[in-house]
């Protein structure tokens, strides 16, 4: 398994991100979907990585700089066939390491409050993230949960 900086040009990435957005839209009302489309992930304040093994895409994740000391995790997704194989943990560890290298003091994320997002909340809790209030441009939303980790 290897993680690489990704330019979002490969069709496998486009398909995984389309699946990610479709899943978010299936479980959240439109006003509460904060997943970014592929075009927005190309913004200069976002760094995107993909996880591969033997030419097969396993997952992805991104880091958005909110300010020089605060980053946000975006677009964490594992290909369904590779769930519970350590892909998510590998990309999360990579993002945390990069955030620390950049000098961020805090790393935050938004995920859903519904039952479908329980595994994600448990995953982030196990990695040391704690619940917090909205950050950056987010607002209180009963469909969103906000988490943060001091680095």
Rounded mean pLDDT is 94
Straight-line distance between termini: 25 Å
Which structural class do you get from the secondary structure elements? alpha+beta
Specify Rg, calculated over alpha carbons: 14 Å
- Number of DSSP E strands: 7
Number of helices, counting only DSSP H or I runs of 4 residues or more: 3
* Poorly predicted sequence stretches spanning 5 or more consecutive residues: none
Question: How would you characterize this protein structure?
Answer:
This protein is α+β, with helices and mostly antiparallel strands. 27% of the residues lie in helices and 33% in strands. It has helices at residues 11-27, 87-101, 118-126, and strands spanning 2-5, 46-53, 56-67, 70-78, 106-112, 130-132, 144-150. It has a seven-stranded mixed sheet with strand order 1-2-3-4-5-7-6, with helices on both faces. It is globular. The mean pLDDT is 94.
Summarize the structure.
The chain has 151 residues and is of the alpha+beta class. 27% of the residues lie in helices and 33% in strands. It contains three helices and seven strands, in the order βαβββαβαββ.
Could you name the key traits of this structure?
27% helix; 151 residues; alpha+beta; globular; seven-stranded mixed sheet
Write the layout of secondary structure elements.
Layout: E1 2-5, H1 11-27, E2 46-53, E3 56-67, E4 70-78, H2 87-101, E5 106-112, H3 118-126, E6 130-132, E7 144-150
Parallel strand pairs: 4-5
Antiparallel strand pairs: 1-2, 2-3, 3-4, 5-7, 6-7
